[in-house]
Amino acid sequence: MTARIGVITFPGSLDDHDALRAIRQCGAEAVPLWHGSDSLDDVSAVILPGGFSYGDYLRCGAIARFAPIMSEVITRAGAGLPVLGICNGFQVLCEAHLLPGALIRNDVQIFTCRDQKLIVENDRTAWTNQFSAGQEITIVLKNGEGRYVADADTLDRLEGEGQVVFRYASSDLNPNGSYRDIAGVSNERGNVVGLMPHPEHNVDPLTSPTLDGVGFFASVLAQLQAV
Amino acid sequence: MARVVVDVMPKPEILDPQGKAVTGALQRLGFDGLTVRQGKRFEIEVDGDVTEDRLEEIRKAADTLLANTVIESFTVREETVADQAANR
Asked: Taking the model in full, what pTM does it have?
């Protein structure tokens, strides 16, 4: 049976259709989900896409975090549902405390858009198991508030527990001043992952210099088949 | 109408890029020796009297939504008539 992967559209989501298309392109059934629903419609994984939910008012992701569908996301994430937050979706997951830390304005003060080299630090999560630890991948990055911050104790714990999933490659630059070059993190169990770069934009040779985003979708499909 | 003010500030250990940019702009304008940290101020009109229970409820609202306590701290206070007159 084809895996059903949902993408939640919030008011102001921007990359929901790219995420849906990437899911289809990677061989799964893409299920559009609406923020105002209280059901995840029996999907077996869910993606929170990029964009500017609620116009980034108050703080990025702070209002979307209380959307009706988020109660179900939080409950099922606790039971092991694979959840991927991309850019604004990462911000929503941090605001929902499904992931540690927070994202604030880039140190460079400007919106940054570039092909970004990343190092995969953890290849055991639901969304990275088809990569290998230490692998360098290139994924497009585009954000104004992508600087990952947390207190030193939290950062030490994340590094100790392997919850730092991606770092900005030292051969490239740290595009936003993220602490310890962190580009993405996971929860303790590894089913919830968030990152600022956009894997859904790196699945098609027509529009992207690499196809490194495919590995995210291949990973979750492998994870779902293994269960 | 009674008013409660919630001030939200970035925690000292979290760098404040906006405050830093404002500090730089002030220096360029000749305002020397001023270091800015930028936060947010919420003015909340409250139906009825501001009781301790009401303040506790607003503290909970601030903790839930107005501030992200991972990176920010907040204070909650009732704005007095004198405060309101001074701000006019």
From this structure: 0.94
